[in-house]
Specification:
alpha/beta, Aminopeptidase, 2 domains, five-stranded mixed β-sheet, 9 helices, globular
């Protein structure tokens, strides 16, 4: 006599793929797809007619240090008479969009090694190519730190950080002292800058983590002198943070003979205008792979877009650094399956300019 339970088991095994296929189809029909553009790795080069030192400026390694990347993104608007500046204004764009120190862990603790499986790997790979370029003479790492170093030595805000007084033939302290003296002529007494020497090369340094940073990597592996500039996160405005970075950068350029076409006063004015600029970028949407729509953000803001598949092709504006962010979704990804109404934020760096809502049609 045939075993009934065995027969039923075989029938279920045979029909199971059919039911799984139907279930998947039902699930897929309830999901929409959103595709975002690939994240850009921004860089600018500004060169004067006269030859001079070539400075590499790296900002935005930490995403919640807006003074660094607000100042760095402004540099593409300047002009030089002498020297050259290469700027990477958004080294850690994902963390900037999230406005956190390190969305995938602390990027400034991933030198000299980072795993190829780390989401930050490709961005650090890009940076290392710049660091090892033969024409780069000097490296600046821009940051914002908490507090005021002059008032409390445990803090990192308002200081020029060096890894040692002198490393090889690089006079790190001498340059830092010049910058400190220059900046302190322009800031109020309670914002005065100091020099923080981490003595990274000492055997018993209390700052052993500094051996994993950009400046250490630059000194040891790229053989380039490097400094870190820190303004205080406790300053009241984004403009003030960017302005203090400007003071330090201007002094640094002055020391190494970099000459600007604009006057000191005009550069300050240009920085202010750049920080206060009112953005209304144009968003290019491709709906269901059939037609493309162009919207000014002011027209798209708070609207609902119905589609089965939505591709955000690009965002254009007078400035750069724009990117769409799906609220409460992984910022490392660029393709998403969506089962419910989802808010899409339009950001420039850490600042949300507006949003619209995607709903599956």
């Amino acid at each position: 006599m045939e075993n009934i339970s065995r027969r039923d088991f075989i029938r279920k095994i045979i029909t199971l793929p059919f039911f799984l296929e139907v279930a998947y189809a039902k699930n897929s029909s309830s999901q929409g797809i959103i595709k975002l553009p690939k994240k850009k790795y921004y860089s600018y080069e500004i060169e004067g007619k006269k030859k001079g030192k070539h400075i590499l400026v790296v900002a935005g390694i930490h995403g919640n240090e807006e003074g660094s990347y607000y100042f760095a993104r402004f540099l593409k608007h300047i002009s030089l008479k002498r020297g050259k500046i290469t700027v990477i204004p958004r080294q850690n764009f994902v963390s900037i969009l999230a406005y956190v120190r390190g969305y995938n862990g602390d990027m400034n603790r991933k030198f000299p090694y980072v795993s190829p499986s780390d989401p930050d790997y490709r961005f650090l790979k890009y940076l290392k190519k710049y660091l090892h370029r033969k024409d780069i003479d000097l490296v600046l790492s821009l940051h914002d730190g908490y507090g005021f170093y002059k008032r409390n030595k445990r803090y990192w805000g308002e200081c020029i950080v060096i890894d040692e007084v002198k490393y090889k033939h690089f006079e790190l302290y001498k340059v830092a002292k010049f910058v400190e003296k220059f900046v302190n002529k322009f800031v109020p007494k309670y914002h005065k800058f100091g020099i923080k020497n981490t003595h990274t090369f000492w055997r018993n340094t209390p700052y052993k983590d500094m051996r994993k940073t950009l400046t250490y990597y630059s000194l040891v592996f790229a053989n380039r002198p490097a400094w870190c500039f820190e303004v205080s996160k406790n300053l009241k405005s984004s403009y003030q943070k960017a302005l203090y970075h400007f003071y330090m950068f201007y002094a640094f350029c002055k020391f190494f003979g970099i000459e600007f076409k604009e006057s000191f006063k005009n550069l300050k004015h240009l920085l202010y205008e750049n920080i206060k600029f009112k953005e209304d970028p144009e968003i290019i949407l491709k709906v269901d792979e059939k037609f493309t729509r162009k919207y000014k953000l002011s027209k798209l803001n708070r609207k609902i877009i119905y589609a089965k598949k939505l591709s955000i092709e690009n965002i254009y504006g007078e400035e750069d650094g724009y990117y769409p962010v799906l609220e409460k979704h992984n910022l490392n990804h660029e393709i998403f399956k969506i089962s419910k109404a989802t808010k899409i934020l339009i950001k420039r760096d850490n600042k949300t300019l507006g949003y619209f809502i995607f709903k599956k049609s």
